[in-house]
């Protein structure tokens, strides 16, 4: 599964002023990221505002993304939810043409036990014809998938190939690295800790800031994977303030503001999320100028 080593980007979904999906903007974004030398793309994760898209919009976005990508990079579909039966049906109905894996977030809101999380992913694994990447993001789901559960799933199901880990818990990362099957992939789910996670064995990142700064981020991740932390460190440090600004008023509003400045796509966003404040937009533009110049 070396195709998921390096920099993956969780694509934003561009919208027009009337709230409809901006497919021209999405095409621009995909080409911009490929030109920026990222390693793979993730369509309709949290950053893609998937929770505000209806079923038909999702299908159109997945199909369009596969067509524009045209096999140039590995492609992952974000398919998650908190109704296991409905999610299993969505996985079975998913058009896998052009896609290499599914990324599925641990169930949100329900706050299942570890056994419930295990059984949820067991059902997804059995329904999916594609490899499955787990996604642990307790800050959004209100429950943590433990290292024990992660490694149990990794050992029990051959098509569960990795985890996007966004718990921020290095004790948990260490335990996964120690106990996981050899080929199972630990992937950083948080931009600021990608570098230290790679130092303990993670294979890369699924990034938010990579939407706006693909060349800069992918260069840093590549150096880390080559073991050249001396060269990687200045790049890592140069992205710290930009990353802070991206999340200051929520994701993906900050990233969309940067992409709008870079003339890749607009910054429209769907409620209940809103655009960044004018003061934050100014700060984002200034930091983007500094890094991208």
TrEMBL record:
<comment type="subunit">
    <text>Homotetramer; dimer of dimers.</text>
</comment>
<dbReference type="InterPro" id="IPR013785">
    <property type="entry name" value="Aldolase_TIM"/>
</dbReference>
<keyword id="KW-0028">Amino-acid biosynthesis</keyword>
<feature type="site" description="Part of a proton relay during catalysis">
    <location>
        <position position="46"/>
    </location>
</feature>
<keyword id="KW-0704">Schiff base</keyword>
<dbReference type="GO" id="GO:0009089">
    <property type="term" value="P:lysine biosynthetic process via diaminopimelate"/>
</dbReference>
<feature type="active site" description="Schiff-base intermediate with substrate">
    <location>
        <position position="164"/>
    </location>
</feature>
<keyword id="KW-0963">Cytoplasm</keyword>
<dbReference type="InterPro" id="IPR002220">
    <property type="entry name" value="DapA-like"/>
</dbReference>
<dbReference type="GO" id="GO:0008840">
    <property type="term" value="F:4-hydroxy-tetrahydrodipicolinate synthase activity"/>
</dbReference>
<dbReference type="Pfam" id="PF00701">
    <property type="entry name" value="DHDPS"/>
</dbReference>
<comment type="similarity">
    <text>Belongs to the DapA family.</text>
</comment>
<dbReference type="GO" id="GO:0019877">
    <property type="term" value="P:diaminopimelate biosynthetic process"/>
</dbReference>
<dbReference type="InterPro" id="IPR005263">
    <property type="entry name" value="DapA"/>
</dbReference>
<feature type="binding site">
    <location>
        <position position="47"/>
    </location>
    <ligand>
        <name>pyruvate</name>
    </ligand>
</feature>
<keyword id="KW-0220">Diaminopimelate biosynthesis</keyword>
<feature type="site" description="Part of a proton relay during catalysis">
    <location>
        <position position="109"/>
    </location>
</feature>
<comment type="function">
    <text>Catalyzes the condensation of (S)-aspartate-beta-semialdehyde [(S)-ASA] and pyruvate to 4-hydroxy-tetrahydrodipicolinate (HTPA).</text>
</comment>
<keyword id="KW-0457">Lysine biosynthesis</keyword>
<feature type="binding site">
    <location>
        <position position="206"/>
    </location>
    <ligand>
        <name>pyruvate</name>
    </ligand>
</feature>
<protein>
    <recommendedName>
        <fullName>4-hydroxy-tetrahydrodipicolinate synthase</fullName>
        <ecNumber>4.3.3.7</ecNumber>
    </recommendedName>
</protein>
<keyword id="KW-0456">Lyase</keyword>
<feature type="active site" description="Proton donor/acceptor">
    <location>
        <position position="135"/>
    </location>
</feature>
<dbReference type="GO" id="GO:0005829">
    <property type="term" value="C:cytosol"/>
</dbReference>
<dbReference type="InterPro" id="IPR020625">
    <property type="entry name" value="Schiff_base-form_aldolases_AS"/>
</dbReference>
<comment type="pathway">
    <text>Amino-acid biosynthesis; L-lysine biosynthesis via DAP pathway; (S)-tetrahydrodipicolinate from L-aspartate: step 3/4.</text>
</comment>
């Amino acid at each position: 599964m070396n195709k998921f080593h390096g920099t993956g980007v969780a694509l934003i979904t561009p919208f027009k002023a009337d709230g409809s999906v901006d497919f021209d903007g999405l095409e621009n974004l995909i080409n911009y990221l490929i030109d920026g030398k990222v390693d793979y793309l993730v369509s309709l994760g949290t950053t893609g505002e998937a929770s505000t898209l209806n079923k038909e919009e999702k299908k159109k976005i997945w199909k369009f993304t596969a067509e524009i990508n045209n096999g140039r990079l590995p492609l992952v579909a974000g398919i998650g939810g908190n109704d296991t039966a409905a999610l299993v049906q969505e996985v079975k109905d998913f058009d896998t043409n052009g896609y290499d894996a599914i990324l599925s977030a641990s169930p949100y809101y329900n706050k299942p036990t570890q056994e419930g999380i295990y059984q949820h992913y067991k059902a997804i694994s059995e329904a999916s014809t594609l490899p499955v990447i787990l996604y642990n993001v307790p800050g959004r789901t209100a429950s943590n998938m433990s290292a024990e559960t992660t490694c149990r799933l990794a050992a029990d199901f051959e098509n569960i190939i990795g985890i996007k880990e966004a718990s921020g818990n290095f004790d948990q990362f260490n335990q996964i690295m120690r106990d996981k099957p050899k080929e199972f992939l630990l992937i950083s789910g948080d931009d600021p800790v990608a570098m230290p996670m790679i130092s303990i064995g993670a294979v890369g990142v699924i990034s938010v800031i990579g939407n706006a700064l693909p060349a800069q981020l992918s260069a840093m991740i590549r150096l880390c994977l080559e073991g050249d932390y001396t060269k990687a460190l200045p790049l890592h440090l140069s992205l710290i303030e930009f990353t802070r600004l991206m999340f200051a008023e929520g994701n993906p509003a900050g990233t969309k503001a940067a992409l709008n400045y870079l003339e890749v796509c607009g910054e429209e966003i769907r409620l209940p999320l809103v655009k960044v404040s004018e003061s934050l937009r100014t700060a984002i533009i200034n930091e983007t100028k500094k890094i991208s110049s």
